[in-house]
Amino acid sequence: DTKNSVICEVPKDTDNDNNEGYHMGNTKMTSNDAAKYCKDRKMDLVRIPNKDVNMIVFNLAAKNNLGRYWINGNDREKEGTWVYTNNRELTYKNWQAGEPNNWGGSQHCILGAYFPNGFWDDFNCDTKNSVICEVPKDTDNDNNEGYHMGNTKMTFDDAVKYCKDRKMDLVRIPNNSVNMIVFNLAAKNNLGRYWINGNDREKEGTWVYTNNRELTYKNWQAGEPNNWGGSQHCILGVYFPNGFWDDFNCDTKNAVICEIAKGDTDDANEEYEETDSTGKVVKRNYRVSNAKKTFDDAVKYCKSQPMDLVRITNADNNEFVYNLAVKYKIGRYWINGNDKEKEGTWVYTNNKELTYKNWQSGEPNNSGGSQHCIVGAYYPNGFWDDFNCDTKNRVVCELVKGDTDDSNEEYEETDSTGKVVKRNYRVNNAKMTFDDAVKYCKDNQMDLVKITNANNNGFVYNLAVKYKIGRYWINGNDRAKEGTWVDTNNKELTYKNWQSGEPNNSGGSQHCIVGAYYPNGFWDDFNCDTKNAVICELVKGGSGTDEDNGDNGKVTEDSNEEYEEKDNNGKVVKRNYRVSNAKTFDDAVKYCKDKQMDLVRITNADNNKFVYNLAVKYKIGRYWINGNDREKEGTWVDTNNKELTYKNWQSGEPNNSGGSQHCIVGAYYPNGFWDDFNCDTKNRVICELVRGDTGTASGKGTDDSNNVIFKDNEGKVISINYQINNAKMNFDDAVKYCKDKQMDVVRISNAEINTFVFKLSEKYGLGKYWINGNDRAVDGTWVDTNNKELPYKNWQKGEPNNGGGVQHCIQGGYYSDGFWDDINCDVKISVICESRKSKDSSGKGDTDANNGLYVIIKDNEGKGTGKLVIDKGTEDSTNGQILIIRDKDDKGSEALNYGKYVITKESETKVVSTSYHLTNAKMNFDDAVKYCKDKQMDLVKIPNEEVNAVVFKKAAKYNLETYWLNGNDRSKEGTWVDTDNNVLTYKNWSTGEPNNNGGNKHCLQGSNNLNGYWEASDCNGLNSVVCVRIS
User: Which run of H or of E encompasses 727?
Assistant: First the structure.
């Protein structure tokens, strides 16, 4: 690929006068990357509206030696029709003679400076050129701040149409600043009263825009809105002074202010009406998005609106949607339909089969074996094509009114305490298994319908009759214990309405409840894997028992049951257990890990019986057992990847029913027998903490039984303890795993240690394993997790090569003889942890060691006294090294300062380690907090002057111009707190700061230009990031 430059335009109120208000990127990039680069800076790729702007930009590029640069324009959708990135046609062009010629059939983007004097050329969009960005232009009507005003008074609906006809929207007011701009504009132009985009026609008191989104800002006059006369459902400005609003009759006539539609087609609100097969009128509202997304992202996007990806129900509906796509020039668009589950069986996202299809001749053909989703507009006249679901196409969402999926039925009752309970129901005719029905309801923030009494049962049954859904699931099962019917919260049902002769558990597999199999609302037990309709409910009010959502029995979370046994070596092992609520297998493993425990392992028959009785005691029903055969069918291993030495399967189990049962549950069968189960189902959790366990293998040394004796690079004697884990994990998880054991990922400080560790890995059959080192901060600068440069490296010839540009961590064991390789930090390999101690041969003073730093504390006579002298060479710890200072009584002194050294206050010494991670990637404050959190770190906090100096020096070293610091005053102006809501005790403001200039500077940033002094900044601005981990 060739490489060229980028130009972006900066806001006109910036200080960048030398570049006429434009921003230029430093690197070459493709057209798509250039557009994204500008968008990330809240700007647009530079547009050329006329000859004067063309020459300004051309000369700017020349002045800054940009070479070739992208211009905002392409003809990707239709050859020869050149449009901006918002799909509007270019009104000015300046082609070189003979251009555009679409040479090679792949030139669909515009380049400046390829020819002299500002002439343009069409170019391949995937080549790399310079970037120039500009601030988005709202409108060409500068005199009216980007708004258009109508000359006549009109009703609300006519005002909406008037703006829409001009490809604009009725003015929206998102905040107070915009409110006053519009108010003053109306006054300046003598408009009098004017419509504001908002109404509560659908639901009294719920004010929404014309695209049905709720208003996030309102500015009502005192006493308004009052819906005077019961007919005031639209919003008016300037009825009251100072920009306050009033609700008004939508049919009165008032002035109109339009604004450019934000996001172009994203705010389209088209409506289509049809009559369904029952004679019922169905209205469909459409929203068109110009953004391209994969099929799954399109479904998710529509759901977030909240709408559905467009369904095509008949030929008229198909023609309407196709014409909509043509009108908004969106090109190909997704249609709601896929055959992912079964080739050739096309279903909607709710799993109902399509009743109407309009395939192009020869389609669908599943070309390449990967076309499982539907697009429209690939062929003319609305014919369909099957397409790869991971390609990106435009999106049309719909909101259907009158469909059963959007039913909102309400039932009210009084519970046993006399409190009123309201139940809202959602009916879905799509058939699904019991577990899928539970998940479907949960995904909609609801529960599968629970029946609490006869009246409630009659209401739900009539609801099923009304919507003609046939059989439907009722929240209840006896999976854990035959004949004991409980809901999904594991509570026993207090009301049942069985048909005579039911439940009978026919065939031994009927463990769930359906309604409407028998008339008049009687129930039947049914196989949970059959597919029936779904009714979800949302319960409001009541005593709270119906809203536990699986959190009942919380008392069990504090259970502390203990079991004692002897292992194979005769060693006593104590196991402490903790019982918790229902989770998937993976969530159960994570939950236990977060508690510094493991999901329960069963080691023998006695242990199995104890755990089973524990489950019975706490009435938890089914519970997960630590074991799965995900990697290899029939090979059952624990979460450390060790094969189970004890199993207690029920007769006929494991059978991998349905091909998806790869985890183990207890208590599905009586007497502690096991069953294989789908790992994504939710079962109760038992965690265990094992004390006295022999653990994972340790390297056996020549001096201590658990240690290996080496000399470090300075000749000091050190003792290293190793712990080996064959479980595979990524680098960050490996660091955390070792840290949880108060250890570090193995460090290789010389050839002797490298050879020993390599042989250790061969002895235990580890294969590849992590070595403590990475070059994430600066490519090619390899540092350990304390940010110290590695003193020793042993690369294989040709390594490190940063293959694919993503290899920033070190693995051993890939090459023979202990040579190293750089590798992607997200791959999963084995782990070796280590802890180090120094050996003080003199016996004088106290010694300690961590991460290779040796701290020796003595007085001037070599004795431990109250007067402390730190050995020469240990003063500097700006990279997170540790000094531990103790007095003669082994107590810490009063001061605590982790930026320079650590003095402990407790009676026993603590080791505190500070690690920093810096990135030049720009992001806003909240993204910076999340970025650090994802690395198990915090956005850097500054507790004192020494730490401030450390962070400032590191930022300067890695060329971080401005960087976020952990502090904000969002909650209360002038009260600066960190992300844990602790008030900052140290501040280092620059002169005149914080000044909250503009009213939106609520986050804390450091700057190289201010020599470590701070300033307040807009939290949505973009700065570099410094993360810290203190342990």
Answer: strand 717-729
